[in-house]
Amino acid sequence: MSETLLVIISILLLLLLLLIVFFIITFFIKKRTHHSILKLHPYLGRMRYLLEKIGPEFRQYWFDHDTDGKPFSRYDFQSVMFLAKYRSEILGFGSKRDFEASGYYIANTLFPVLTEELSVNVTPEREGKKYVIHKEGLFSRREKLTADTTNLWLYEEDDAIIIGENRKYPWKLYGMFGASATSYGSIGENYILASGFGAKMAGGSWINTGEGGVIPEHLHTGANIVAQIGPGLFGYRDEDGNFSMEKFMGKAKESNIKAFELKFGQGAKIRGGHLEGQKVNEKIAFVRNVREGETINSPNRFSFLNNAAETLYFIQQLQENGGKPVGMKIVIGQQEPLENLFKTMKELNIYPDFITIDGSEGGSGATYKSMADSMGMPLIPALLTFIDTANHYNIRDKFKVFAAGKLITPDKVAIALAIGADAVNSARGFMMASGCIMALQCNSGQCPSGVATTNPHYQKALDPYEKKWRVMNYIVSMRYSLFSLAAAAGVKSPRHLKRDHIVFKDEMGRVVPLSELFPTSK
Question: I need a labelling partner for 362 at 20 to 30 A (CA). Which of 187, 209, 258, 426 fits?
Fold first, then answer.
C-alpha cells in the first residue's frame, strides 16, 4: 500500500471519528439545553449556529454587492486600500456608483485649473514606500513594498489653517485631513504608532488621542497631537476623580500636543465612552486612573459643567493656562441648545478655538445599537445646521470647524469642505489604512488585524513600521485627490470649495446647487 493511500485513509478515519464524537456530544447536550431549536433539531441546530458565526464574513466577501455593505461598502473599503497601499485610485470600466439614486455630486467647470496653476506646495519630495503587485493569483497576491518618493500636496502659506490665532502657541495646519479620536484601550499601541508615524511623515496632519488619555506612544511618534479630554477626565483627574489643572498643565508643556479638545458628544455614542472590562489592562488602568479589568462607562457630560456659560469660562481658563488652542467636539441634535451656546459666546465674547462636528454615523469602536442607529444627526445635515446657525449669529469666523463621520474618500471630504468645514477627521479611514478588514470585532479585544485591541497576541498582526507607510500614503493620496477635484471644479485649492461647487440630484433627475438648497454659504 502506497504512502499516499495511507495518508488518505488516515484523514478519512479521523474525519469519521470527529463526526461520531460530534453526534454523541450533540445527542447528550440536547437533553439539557435551554435552546428550543437544539432540543428538537440538535444536528441542524448546530449547523445553524455555525452558519450564523461565519455568516458576516461570507456576506462581506461573497454575497453583498460591492456598493451595499454596511457600515462601509466593499467599494469604499477598496478605495481606502488602493490609496494606502498603492497610492492610486485608478479604476477600470467606470464607476460602480448608482447614478439613478439621489445624492451629492461635485460640479465641474468648463475650464478647469491646470496643475501648474494650483495653489499647492508640492516641494520638497518626501521619501516614501508603496506596494507594487508582481503577480496576483487565485489564492495569493505577490507584492513588494518598494521605496520611492512622493510630493506631499500641502496648502500654500496663504491657505494654511491657523487654529487659535490669539493663543500663545497657535497651531498652523498645512493640510486638511487627519486622524479622528481613537482612545488607547479601544485601539492598541501598534495602531497609535502606525497612525502617528504616518501622520508625521505626511506632514500637515495630526492624530487625536481620544478620551483615553495621552500615552508615551502618542508622543514618541512626533506627530501633531490633539489631546482629547472626555467627561471621564482620563489622564486629567486627581485621586478623587476631579479635574486636575496641574495634570492639564503638564500635558500643555508637551511640544507635540498642539491643541486640546473637550468631548461633549461622539457620533456613535452620545451617552459617553464605553470600554469593556476585558480590554482594561494594567497600562490602561494606570493611564485612566481606574481599576484593572472593570468595564469603563464615561459620564455623558462633564459633571462640573451645567450650562453654556460654565463651559465657555472653563474653555477660557484652559486657553489662558495652557497657552494652546482649546476646542470642543459635539454632535448636533436639538436646535435650541446650539443657539443658546452661540448666544452665550456672543454675550461673553468667549469662543473655543475650534469645534468638531461629529456625525451620528461615526463609530470606531464599541457602542450601543440604539445610540448608533437613532441618536443625533448624520454629518451632512449636522454640518449644514451648524454652519448656517453660526452664520446667522455672525460668529462663524470666530473658530475653525472640523468635520467627522464616515469621511474616508476624497469626494466625501470635498463635500464636507464645500459645506463649510475647514478640515476633516477620519478614524475608520486611518484604521483601514493600518490593516482593518471590517471584522466587526472592535468590542471583543480580538481584532484579527491588530488595530482595535491591546492584546499582545492580536497586536502582532500590525507591524507599525510597515503600516506607517500605508497611513502616509493614505493622507498624501487624499490631499492629491482633493486638489484634483478642486481643479476640476475650477478653484486652485480645496480651501476654496464652496456650496456652489456641489449639486444635489434627486431620484427624478432634478439637479439643484447646494447653495440654492442651503443659501448661507461658507
Answer: 258
